[in-house]
Specification:
single chain; alpha/beta; four-stranded parallel sheet; 13 helices; binds pyridoxal-5'-phosphate
Length: 367
């Protein structure tokens, strides 16, 4: 049995009628940009994420950029980001003209290490961007305390962790303004690019609404130099239909993770995901680690099991950031993760049989 890394089929088949209805509604309305569908989705998502405001935008990267921009971050400022994140977090900082400052993660949860944050803070530091990597909530209590002590903004990168919590409070509801992504492969995915900012600040929400739409509140009147970074009506309609299923899909991801956990316990040198006692995990990805990563990946590929590496090159070693002068060896934990991590198949609708087969193929690799 072939097991893909990601398979939309079980999710999309179950909601085909709702998605077709969503399309028909937008098609018949003849209103395609910033209308009732975006408003409805924003309200539903804000309620789900327990925040005052959601602002729908074009994608996750733009959500992070607009959050930083609305917080007044720009040239001459520094923003702390994890050394092991997806490049979008770092790019969002670069877009503002500010300098990304990398901070190493914990070796167990792979999330920002609060104990290392203060040594990265300088007089120029304006914000911290915790990334809830792979779907696990960061230690937000400690991060918010440090930020408040130093007068810093917090912008969560919640692209991978819809419905994850720390101390019972949802990711995307801690920071001053937070970005999330509805890229198709994310836990809540559109049928194309989409994203959102979540915030409890009336002022930041208002700024972001203006910035996403050409810096305009009234058509053809431009208050500031804004952007075209809007969420489409069509994507908003699809997302509203899918949002009703997010809790169920997240439960299924957690079930798949629990099956993996039982089946992969104590095999070879495999390191399984560890969840902080106060955190919950939304399992966007189920990431294992091994010194024999490339061999194991080849073995799984040969047995028609799809895997990916998140991420093979850490930001500080990317060619795009050569000008920063970041050296190989400068962020050893990020480098170690990049050479040892492997993401196993994970999607709502995966069965116990799928997981048993993946585990069996892995067991045979080590035998
Ligand atoms: C996907 C992702 C983003 C960017 O989202 P896009 O919608 O692809 O722009 C940002 N940060 C993280 C951690 C992501 O996984």
């Amino acid at each position: 049995m072939k097991i893909p890394f990601l398979n939309f089929d079980p999710m999309h088949r179950a909601i085909q009628t709702e998605m077709a209805d969503a399309f028909q509604r937008v098609y018949n309305s003849n209103w395609l940009i910033l209308g009732q569908e975006v408003k409805n989705f924003e309200a539903a998502y804000a309620q789900m994420n327990q925040v005052q405001h959601t602002v729908g935008v074009s994608n996750g990267l733009d959500a992070l950029f607009l959050s930083l921009k609305a917080c007044g971050i720009g040239q001459g400022d520094e923003v702390i980001v994890p050394s092991n994140t997806y490049i979008a977090t770092v790019l969002a900082v670069s877009y503002t003209g500010a300098k990304p400052v990398l901070s190493e993660p914990r070796t167990d949860t792979y999330n920002l290490n609060p104990d290392l944050l203060e040594q990265a803070i300088t007089p120029r530091t304006k914000a911290i961007m915790p990334v809830h990597l792979y779907g696990q909530a960061c230690e937000m209590e400690a991060i918010m305390q440090i930020a408040n002590r130093h007068g810093l903004k917090v912008i969560e990168d919640n692209a991978q962790a819809h419905l994850a919590t720390f101390n019972g409070k949802l990711t995307g509801s801690w920071g001053h303004a937070n970005g999330t992504s509805f890229y198709p492969g994310k836990n809540l995915g559109a049928l194309g690019d989409a994203g959102a900012v979540t915030t409890n600040s009336d002022e930041l929400a208002d700024k972001i609404r203006v910035l996403r739409n050409y810096g305009s509140r009234v058509k053809y009147e431009n208050e500031v130099i804004g952007y075209n970074m809007r969420l489409d009506e069509l994507q908003a309609a699809f997302l509203s239909a899918k949002l009703n299923h997010l809790h169920g899909w997240t439960e299924q991801r957690r079930q798949v993770a629990a099956w993996y956990h039982d089946a992969l316990q104590g095999i070879g040198d495999l390191i399984l995901p560890v969840t902080h006692p106060a955190a919950t995990h939304a399992y966007h990805l189920y990431v294992v680690r091994t010194k024999r990563r490339d061999e194991l990946q080849q073995h799984l590929t040969a047995h028609e099991i799809g895997t990916l590496i998140h991420y093979p090159i850490p930001p500080h070693l990317q060619q795009a950031y050569r000008h920063m002068g970041w050296r190989k060896g400068a962020f050893p934990i990020a480098e170690e993760l990049a050479t040892t991590c492997l993401s196993l198949p994970m999607w709502p609708g995966m069965t116990a049989e799928h997981v048993a087969q993946v585990a069996d193929v892995i067991r045979r690799f080590y035998a």
